[in-house]
Design a protein that fits this description.
Strand order of the largest sheet: 1-2-3-4-5-6-7-10
Helix content: 25-40%
Shape: globular
CATH topology: TIM Barrel
Number of domains: 1
Strand content: 15-25%
CATH class: Alpha Beta
Largest sheet: 8 strands, parallel, barrel
Radius of gyration: 19 Å
Number of helices: 10
Structural class: alpha/beta
CATH architecture: Alpha-Beta Barrel
Number of strands: 10
Distance between the termini: 25 Å
Length: 320
C-alpha cells in the first residue's frame, strides 16, 4: 500500500487528512452542557468562525432526528444538512463534517442531493460520515425495521455513490433512476468523500473496500492500535489505496497543564500536556484526525478554544 498520500477528493478531505499526520477538529455545538441533553446553541456560528480563524481543520455535526431520552444528547438540534448549508455560507476554509448521517432513516436521493448541494455551496468542504444507526427507538418512529438496517445501509450507500455519475442507471430497493434522468448538482470532485462510522452492520472487508475513510470510537491505545492496523491490513488485501482513520474524543481541559487524565464519557479530563501526549500516541498508531467534543468542558469555551489552538495546533495542524 502506498502510504505517501491519500487519494485526492475534495478540498476539505485533502486539507484535513494527511498520512502519518493527525489534525484536530471540533464537534458542534461548541459549548458545555454536561447537565441535561439540550445545548443552548448560543453564539454557535461565532464559535465555529472562531475555530476556523484559529486553524482547526474541521467541525463535525451529528444526525439526531429524534430527542430519544435513553440517548441523552440532542446534538446540535438543527437538521445536519440545513445547518451545514448555513455554515457553508458563514465560513470559508474549515471542512464541514457530519458524523454521521443515519442512512437507513433517510431516502438516499435526498441525502445525495443535500450532500452534493453542501459540497458545491461550500467549495468542496463536505466530509460525509455515514452510519447504520444505533438508536433502535428511531426506527419504529419511521416505520422502518431495525433488523434491516444493515441491508438498507448498503443499498443507500450504493444509491448515493451512483448519483454522482452523469444520468446514472440504478435499480435497488430505494428506486430505479432511468431513461437519462439525472441528479444535480454534482459533487465538486465527481464523488462525495463518504467515511463509514463504526461497523455499520457490515463486514469489515466491505468497509475497507467501500468507504473513503473510517470513523471509529475512542478506546485505549493498545486496542485502538490493533483495530487500526487490522483495518489497514484489510485495505491492502483489498487492493485499496491508503485511507484516513478518524475518531472523536470528549475532553475537559484543566487549568493545571500537567493534571493527570481522569476518565469521563468517551474521553478524559486532564491538563494540556497529557492531552498532547495522548494525541501524539494516536498519531503514532495511525489516527489521522481527532474530533474534540467539549460537552463536558468546565472552562470558558472561547478560552478553551484559544488554549487548544495555541498549545496543540503547532504540532497537529496539517494545512499548509
Amino acid at each position: 500500500m502506498d502510504n505517501s498520500n491519500f487519494q485526492s477528493i475534495n478540498p476539505g478531505y485533502n486539507a484535513t487528512f494527511r498520512p502519518k499526520r493527525l489534525s484536530l477538529g471540533l464537534v458542534v455545538p461548541l459549548e458545555s452542557y454536561a447537565v441535561g441533553v439540550l445545548p443552548s446553541m448560543e453564539q454557535h456560528i461565532e464559535r465555529v468562525q472562531l475555530a476556523e480563524r484559529l486553524g482547526f481543520a474541521a467541525v463535525w455535526l451529528r444526525d439526531v432526528p429524534f430527542n430519544v431520552p435513553s440517548f441523552g444528547d440532542a446534538g446540535q438540534l438543527f437538521d445536519p444538512f440545513v445547518y451545514l448549508g448555513l455554515l457553508a455560507g458563514q465560513t470559508k476554509t474549515i471542512a464541514l463534517g457530519v458524523a454521521s448521517i443515519i442512512l437507513p432513516l433517510r431516502h438516499p436521493a435526498h441525502v445525495a442531493k443535500a450532500a452534493a448541494s453542501v459540497d458545491v455551496l461550500s467549495g468542496g468542504r463536505l466530509l460525509l460520515g455515514v452510519a447504520s444507526g444505533d438508536r433502535p427507538e428511531e426506527y419504529p418512529a419511521l416505520n422502518i425495521p431495525f433488523a434491516e438496517r444493515g441491508e438498507r445501509f448498503r443499498d443507500s450507500f450504493a444509491y448515493i455513490q451512483n448519483m454522482a455519475a452523469n444520468a446514472p442507471a440504478l435499480k435497488n430497493a430505494y428506486g430505479n433512476p432511468h431513461d437519462g434522468m439525472d441528479m444535480l448538482p454534482k459533487p465538486i470532485a465527481g464523488k462525495l468523500p463518504m467515511l463509514i462510522t463504526g461497523g455499520s452492520q457490515q463486514d469489515p472487508d466491505w468497509i475497507a473496500r467501500h468507504g473513503e475513510g473510517w470513523i471509529t470510537y475512542p478506546r485505549n491505545i493498545d486496542t485502538q492500535a490493533r483495530l487500526i492496523a487490522d483495518w489497514r491490513t484489510r485495505l491492502q488485501a483489498a487492493g485499496e489505496p491508503n485511507k484516513p482513520a478518524v475518531q472523536s474524543l470528549y475532553i475537559d481541559l484543566q487549568d493545571n497543564p500537567d493534571a493527570l487524565p481522569q476518565p469521563i464519557h468517551l474521553g478524559f479530563r486532564s491538563g494540556i500536556n497529557p492531552l498532547r501526549a495522548h494525541l501524539k500516541l494516536l498519531q503514532e498508531i495511525g489516527i489521522n484526525h481527532v474530533a474534540l467534543n467539549l460537552r463536558f468542558n468546565q472552562a470558558d469555551i472561547e478560552t478553551t478554544l484559544h488554549h487548544l489552538a495555541e498549545a496543540l495546533l503547532p504540532d497537529f495542524a496539517t494545512k499548509t
